[in-house]
């Protein structure tokens, strides 16, 4: 039987996922980062370096701001935490879909689609050289690239472990600001920027207080921490820094200790 697909209206409830989590998780390495997100009720993108192995070698790496999420089931989330940290915040997926985010497309470099993008990269290099300027941020080619990743890549996780990874395991969703949202910070960094430069520029986005994704506490589904000790610290932080009494209790009720969770998986 043929599956007939209709356009879904933005004014009706979106269907629930059946083969992925109905939560969009964002993970980090430190408790203080999670506390800052809760206090400000904002998610700021950070500059990330993307290597597009499915395009021509002369096409440069790109460093631009993004905020990344995944919709991995809780029972498998520990593998993701090994790469990105054991402190996380999970949002109701159907609420966050309305916030200009998009699933990433993973490109097999042996596919005909990869050939299409390789030809586009050659056309860009032929016309503009290997330099990337601000105008490229609004270019159709970049609008496609910003939500793409290679299917396989060599990665280094937060514990400095290097290995080859199937990137589609990340089930990544991504928020990338549109060009019109930039006022003070740069859409791109120099491809040879050091890790310190990338970190400093990312911190500047938060200082300028622009490009952020705003949320309310009702949109939060889970708060994830690694241990009971850090759960207690997060509870203390919520009591001390969240003014709304009902909001405090709701946030505390969403805390999950990953160590305890994994024991029962």
List the helices and strands and how they pair.
Layout: E1 23-28, H1 31-40, E2 42-43, E3 46-50, E4 62-70, H2 77-84, E5 87-92, H3 93-96, E6 102-103, E7 105-107, H4 112-128, H5 140-145, E8 148-150, E9 152-156, E10 162-166, E11 172-175, H6 195-208, E12 213-214, E13 220-225, H7 228-241, H8 245-253, E14 255-257, H9 258-263
Task: Please outline what is shown here.
With 265 residues, this protein is α+β, with helices and mostly antiparallel strands.
Written overview of the protein:
There is one protein chain. This protein has 265 residues and is of the alpha+beta class. The protein has one domain. The chain is built from 9 helices and 14 strands. It has a 4-stranded mixed sheet. A 4-stranded antiparallel sheet has the order 3-4-11-6. The chain has a two-stranded antiparallel sheet with strand order 2-12. Helix 7 runs antiparallel to helix 8. It starts with 22 loop residues before the first strand and ends with a helix.
When the domains are counted, the total is: 1
Strand percentage, roughly?
Answer: 15-25%
Ends apart, CA distance between termini: 37 Å
**Class from secondary-structure proportions:** alpha+beta
Sheet with the most strands, sense and barrel status: 4 strands, mixed
Order of strands in the sheet with the most strands? 1-5-13-14
Q: Approximately how much helix is present in the residues? A: 25-40%
The pLDDT mean sits at 90
Give the SSE string.
EHEEEHEHEEHHEEEEHEEHHEH
Counting DSSP H or I runs of 4 or more residues, the number of helices is 9
* Model regions low in confidence, pLDDT < 50 over at least 5 residues: none
Shape: globular
- The count of DSSP E runs of length 2 or more, i.e. the number of strands, is 14
Estimated radius of gyration:
20 Å
């Amino acid at each position: 039987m043929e599956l007939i697909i209709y356009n879904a209206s933005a004014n009706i409830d979106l269907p629930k996922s059946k083969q992925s989590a109905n939560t969009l998780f964002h993970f980090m390495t430190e408790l203080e980062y999670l506390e800052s997100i809760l206090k400000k009720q904002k998610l700021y993108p950070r500059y990330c370096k993307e290597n597009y192995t499915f395009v021509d070698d002369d096409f440069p790496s790109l460093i631009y701001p993004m905020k990344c999420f995944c919709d991995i089931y809780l029972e498998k989330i520990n593998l993701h935490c090994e790469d990105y940290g054991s402190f996380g915040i999970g949002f109701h997926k159907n609420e966050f879909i309305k916030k200009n985010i998009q699933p990433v497309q993973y490109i097999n470099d042996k596919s005909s689609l990869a050939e299409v993008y390789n030809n586009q990269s050659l056309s860009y290099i032929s016309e503009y050289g290997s330099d990337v300027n601000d105008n490229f941020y609004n270019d159709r080619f970049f609008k496609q690239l910003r939500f793409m990743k290679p299917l396989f890549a060599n990665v280094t996780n937060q514990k400095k472990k290097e290995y080859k990874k199937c990137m589609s395991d990340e089930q990544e969703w991504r928020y990338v600001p549109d060009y019109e949202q930039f006022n003070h910070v740069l859409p791109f960094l120099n491809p040879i920027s050091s890790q310190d430069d990338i970190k400093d520029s990312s911190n500047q986005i938060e200082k300028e207080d622009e490009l952020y994704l705003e949320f309310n506490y009702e949109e939060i589904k889970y708060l994830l921490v690694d241990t009971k000790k850090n759960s207690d610290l997060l509870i203390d932080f919520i009591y001390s820094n969240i003014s709304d009494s009902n909001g405090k209790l709701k946030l505390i009720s969403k805390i999950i200790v990953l160590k305890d969770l994994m024991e029962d998986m």
